[in-house]
Design brief:
Length: about 600
C-alpha cells in the first residue's frame, strides 16, 4: 500500500517538475527575446528580467498543472458517481427482470415517496376513487380510478392517457434512472395484466370446454339412445352387431341374435291411446335391462320391434332365454296399467355361424324366424333352423323374399336344410349328392361358377316346400288332387323366395323348372327336351334320386340297383337320357370306390 502511494507521489512530482521546467524555460528564454527589441535595458536589469521570467514560468506551470488536475478529478468523481448509479440501476433492473420473467415473483409497490399525490395535484374530491386520501401512490397502476370525469379501467386500457398526466410526468421526470424504472414497471405491469387476462380467458375457455365436453357426451349418448326406452337405437345396434360378429368369427365363438315384436301393439295405441303404448314400450326397455345378462345387448330396432345380441350363446341357448322372456313379458302390462292379456310378443332366434355368415345375414335370419313365429299364430319363439309347424301363407312368402334379398348363401342354405329336416321323408344324402354334382360338373366341363351353382342347386331346389303345410308334406295316405296341386306349387314358391337373392340368380331356373319332364309332361310350364335349362334337368335327376332313396308313406326306400333301373326307365320320357347315363355312371363308380374301401 505504501509502495503504491510513494510511486503515485513520485509520478506526480515528476509531472509537476516537467511542467514547471517547460513553462519556466519558455517564459525565461522566449519572452525576453520577444520583448528585447522594444525595451532599453540597463546592464543588470536584463539579467534580472530573465531570471524573473524563469520564476514566473515555473509558477504558472505549477498552477496550470494543479488547475487541470482538480478539474479532471471533479469530472472523474462525477463519472464514478454515474457509473455507480448505472451499476445499481443495472442490478435493480436485472433483479426486476429476473423476478418478473424467470422467477414469476415480480411485484410493484404502489407507494413511493418521490411520487406526487394525484388527488392533491389535480385537486380531486372524488372520495369513491381508490387513490383518494392515499399519499404518494402510483395511481396509474390502480384499476377503477376516477379521473377526468370518468372511471378508468386497467392500466393497459388507460396507459396512453396516464402517460400524459402531470402526476405521471412528475414521477418519472425527476431522474432518468427513475424514469427508466417507472417505464419498466409500466411495461411489466401491462404484461402482467395481459397475462392475467389470458389466464382468466383460459379459465373461462376451460370451463366452457368442460361444459361443451359434457354436452357433447350427452348429445353423443342421445344420438345412439332411444329416449323412450333407454335402450340403444337402430344405428348403434348395426355397428355393435358388426363388432360382435367380427369378434365371434375371430375367436370361433357362437353368437345369437333375438328379434322381438310386440303382438297387436297397434290395438293398444288405438284402444288406450299412444301414452299407454309409450308406457308399454318404456316398460319393455326396463324389462330387458332387468332380465338380460350384463354381457347381453338390447336395442330398439324400430317401432315395437326390439333386438338382443347374446355373445357366447348358440341358437338353442338363445331360444331358451327367449322362451323365458316370452313368459315373463306380461308383467309389463301391470307396470303400464293394463291387463296382462294385452301384452304379448313374438320372438325370432338365429345364431352365428349356424344360420349366417355375416351381420346382415344374421339379421335376415332372425327376422325370418320372427316371421315364422307370426305365421304360427304369434306369441311364440321360432328358431331359424327349426321350421316345425311353420306354414307360410301367400303374403308371408313375399315377406320372406324381401328378408332374404341380401342374405348370404350360408343363410339361404341353412333355410334349405331346415326345409329338408321338416320333410321327414327326405333322405340324409346331401353331402353324397354334392360330391356327385361336383363329378357331373367336371364331366360336363362346366366352369367354376356353374359347378358351384350346381352344388348349391342340390341343396336349394326344394326350398319352396317351406310354403307347403307339414300335413301335406308328411301325409301317409295318398294325396288328393288339391294336395297334389299344392305340392306342385313349391317350385314357383322357391322361385319367388329366391328371385331377389343377389347371390343365386343362376339357380332360379333350376329351382323353378326341376320338375319339368323331357317329354313335356312336367310342371310348371310343360317345357320339353333341351328347352328345359341344363341346370334344371340335372337337378330333376337329383331330386328323383333323393325321393327314391328315401322312405315314403306308400313304399320303402329303394336300393341303388332299383334306383338305376327306375332312372333308365325314365330316360327319354322323364329325364334327359344323356344326363341319366352320366349320373348312373358316377353313382356306380362312387359305389365301387366305397366297396373297395370297405373291402
Amino acid at each position: 500500500m505504501i509502495t503504491q502511494y510513494m510511486s503515485r507521489y513520485m509520478n506526480n512530482m515528476r509531472r509537476i517538475f516537467l511542467v514547471m521546467i517547460s513553462f519556466g524555460l519558455t517564459m525565461g528564454l522566449v519572452f525576453p527575446v520577444i520583448v528585447d527589441p522594444f525595451v532599453t535595458w540597463n546592464p543588470g536589469m536584463k539579467v534580472f528580467f530573465r531570471i524573473a521570467c524563469l520564476g514566473a514560468g515555473f509558477a504558472v506551470g505549477a498552477f496550470c498543472y494543479y488547475l487541470v488536475k482538480v478539474t479532471l478529478f471533479h469530472s472523474n468523481m462525477l463519472l464514478e458517481k454515474r457509473k455507480s448509479e448505472l451499476e445499481r440501476a443495472k442490478d435493480r433492473f436485472g433483479a426486476l427482470a429476473s423476478a418478473a420473467i424467470a422467477d414469476r415473483d415480480w411485484d410493484v409497490s404502489f407507494h413511493d415517496a418521490h411520487i406526487p399525490t394525484c388527488w392533491q395535484v389535480k385537486d380531486c374530491d372524488k372520495e369513491d376513487c381508490p387513490c383518494h386520501g392515499k399519499e404518494s401512490m402510483r395511481c396509474w397502476l390502480v384499476t377503477g380510478t376516477y379521473c377526468g370525469g370518468e372511471i378508468q379501467g386497467r392500466f393497459a386500457q388507460k396507459v396512453d392517457r396516464c402517460s400524459q398526466c402531470e402526476v405521471y410526468q412528475q414521477a418519472v421526470k425527476c431522474d432518468p434512472i427513475n424514469e427508466i424504472g417507472e417505464n419498466f414497471n409500466s411495461l411489466m405491469w401491462v404484461v402482467r395484466e395481459r397475462e392475467n387476462e389470458l389466464s382468466e380467458a383460459r379459465a373461462i375457455l376451460q370451463e366452457q370446454y368442460t361444459e361443451l365436453e359434457g354436452l357433447h357426451k350427452i348429445a353423443k349418448e342421445a344420438a345412439v339412445t332411444d329416449m323412450l326406452t333407454g335402450l340403444k337405437n337402430h344405428g348403434h345396434f348395426q355397428g355393435r352387431l358388426e363388432e360382435e360378429v367380427e369378434r365371434a368369427e375371430r375367436y370361433s365363438r357362437p353368437l345369437a341374435l333375438v328379434m322381438i315384436d310386440l303382438d297387436f301393439f297397434k290395438s293398444i295405441n288405438d284402444k288406450f291411446g299412444h301414452q299407454k303404448g309409450d308406457a308399454v314400450l318404456a316398460g319393455l326397455g326396463g324389462f330387458l335391462r332387468r332380465e338380460l345378462r350384463t354381457v347381453d345387448y338390447a336395442a330398439r330396432y324400430g317401432g315395437e320391434e326390439f333386438v338382443i345380441i347374446m355373445p357366447e350363446t348358440d341358437g338353442p341357448g338363445a331360444r331358451r332365454v327367449a322362451e323365458r322372456l316370452r313368459e315373463n313379458i306380461k308383467c309389463i302390462g301391470d307396470e303400464a296399467g293394463l291387463s296382462q292379456a294385452y301384452v304379448a310378443a313374438s320372438f325370432g332366434v338365429a345364431d352365428f355361424p349356424a344360420c349366417a355368415a355375416d351381420a346382415s345375414s344374421l339379421i335376415a335370419a332372425a327376422d325370418s324366424a320372427l316371421l315364422f313365429s307370426k305365421s304360427k299364430g304369434r306369441n311364440r319363439v321360432s328358431y331359424f333352423r327349426d321350421l316345425s309347424e311353420t306354414e307360410l301363407k301367400e303374403g308371408d312368402i313375399e315377406s320372406l323374399n324381401s328378408r332374404l334379398e341380401h342374405a348370404s348363401l350360408k343363410t339361404i342354405c341353412s333355410l334349405a336344410e331346415a326345409v329338408d329336416v321338416r320333410d321327414q321323408y327326405n333322405g340324409d344324402d346331401s353331402r353324397d349328392l354334392a360330391r356327385v354334382a361336383a363329378a357331373m360338373a367336371e364331366r360336363l366341363e362346366m366352369g367354376e361358377r356353374q359347378a358351384d351353382a350346381l352344388a348349391l342347386a342340390t341343396v336349394l331346389h326344394d326350398i319352396g316346400k317351406i310354403g307347403v303345410p307339414d300335413a301335406i308334406l308328411n301325409k301317409r295316405d295318398k294325396l288328393n288332387s288339391e294336395e297334389i296341386d299344392m305340392i306342385r306349387q313349391h317350385p314357383e314358391i322357391g322361385r319367388r323366395i329366391m328371385q331377389e337373392a343377389e347371390q343365386i340368380q343362376d339357380l332360379v331356373a333350376a329351382i323353378l323348372y326341376h320338375h319339368e319332364r323331357w317329354d313335356g309332361q312336367g310342371y310348371p310350364e310343360q317345357l320339353k327336351g333341351e328347352k328345359i335349362p341344363l341346370m334344371a334337368r340335372i337337378v330333376g335327376i337329383f331330386d328323383a334320386y333323393r325321393a327314391m332313396s328315401s322312405n315314403r308313406p306308400y313304399r320303402k326306400a329303394m336300393d341303388n340297383a332299383q334306383i338305376v333301373d327306375e332312372l333308365r326307365r325314365g330316360a327319354g320320357t322323364q329325364f334327359d337320357p344323356v344326363l341319366v347315363e352320366l349320373f348312373i355312371d358316377i353313382i356306380q363308380e362312387d359305389e365301387r370306390k366305397q366297396l373297395s374301401q370297405t373291402g
